Amino acid sequence: MRLPAHRLLPATALTAASALLTGCFAGAESATGDAAGGKRIRVAMMQPPRSGLSPLSDDAFKLSRWSTAETLVKLDEEGDAEPALATKWTQSGRSWTFTVRDGVTFHDGTELTAEDVVRSLTEAAGASPKPRILDGVELTAKAGGKDTVVVTTGDEDPLVPQRLSSPQLSILAAKAYEGKTVSPVGAGTGPFELTKVNGTSSATLDRYDAYWGGKAKSPGIDVRFVPDGTARAAALRSGEADIVEAVPVSQAALLDEDLITEVPMPRTNTLYLNTEKGVFKDASLRAAARAAIDAESIVKGVYEGRADVAEGLLGPALPWAADLRTPVSHAKAGNPSGKSLTIGTFTDRAELPEVAAILQQQLQKAGFKVKLDVREYANIESDALAGEFDAFILSRATVLDSGDPAAYLYSDFASDGSFNLSQLADPTVDKALTKAGGTQAGEARRKAVIEAEAAVLATDAAVPMLHERVIQGDAAGVTGAAHDPRERELITADTYVK
């Protein structure tokens, strides 16, 4: 049952939150503002840095969300490439030539040149491990002059501009690479300069007045890493933070609805069915399982209505998908008649064991006999990939760092896909996936992707149940905070606190 939006946080939660947040933003100028009257933005983020904020790790997304490090290219809402530190680009076979934006300086005052771009891309391509956007990609970069960079891949790749939009391929000043690790402190090009990092507890950013895109509206950002979800929610409620990342579903109902925004994520909760062996080798029984699932009751019961019932593998975070999708023909449902099956899932995402319990009830009602196997992800992944389960529940990101879903579809459903939990080997699916992967970016590629999705859905190898949302908290005085499904943007040059 959903709690009223005006209900106060329990006193115990507030006490715990206060203990965790005491001194979080001490010394910040948020309360009184800077000399020009602007207020600093206080941010409570969920995950602390894992790799010292190295852009070659997942920490790169923090640098992007704080608008301190930038890439050659950025993505629009459709996932198409737009200029950023590069103003234009052209393709010639395996090579792409990018024109570097003039008049850009790094936070240390040095000028952005083609050599800086080459250095950053070369460091990323040679990193171990590589940024995941470069998995399986042979990429080299060389200067074609002061303001042009030629990027070449081992195979012709229509997605090179989208790949270069990944925060893990941010362009940093030479000083970032002088030590044993890559340090973004004072080395970015964005509207905010990262000036201080306190381990895994906090970070400080100040406005960079020489930003090529125009002066930011806020004088700076004070970040605190608060892994405890209750504490983050309490920080918003008490006024300790201006922007709060990832408010838990359980806490959202306790906050003023005007302070929270639900953002569709490119993440789908899917039931993968083993097509190679066991009960679901029979297409009619896969169809029976699909017909038995009531996703709406899962959304209401587990996610308290804060998720979207799936119409396909790709959800509302990719707004073009619904417009291109057409009805899919499925096999006729067979009779389960007491067939036994085992569903696997993991505890790392708190909702999944609950989802599994509801699915067990729904499938048993349809006539299946269902056992559950629930473990930590690290202890169950190898069995899932080996096809040891009849079905597996997974919360899966449907776009990788390129903003394109073709790689996810290939990984999960191609005969040689590296994450083929369904053990699917279907020539029609393989053909559609290969076509999607080789189509030029834009409308034609989006249509090919939806055709591939339809081919997968027709097999009933995967039953998409729901699309998750992330809940962001913005205090009443916050203006211009980004609500980004890809979680690349949070604070921009236009974000400020009244």
From TrEMBL:
It comes from Streptomyces plumbiresistens. This is ABC transporter substrate-binding protein. The lineage of its organism: Bacteria, Bacillati, Actinomycetota, Actinomycetes, Kitasatosporales. It holds the Pfam family SBP_bac_5. InterPro entries: Peptide/Ni-bd, SBP_5, SBP_5_dom. Keywords: Signal. Residues 82-418 form the Solute-binding protein family domain. Residues 1-28 form the signal peptide.
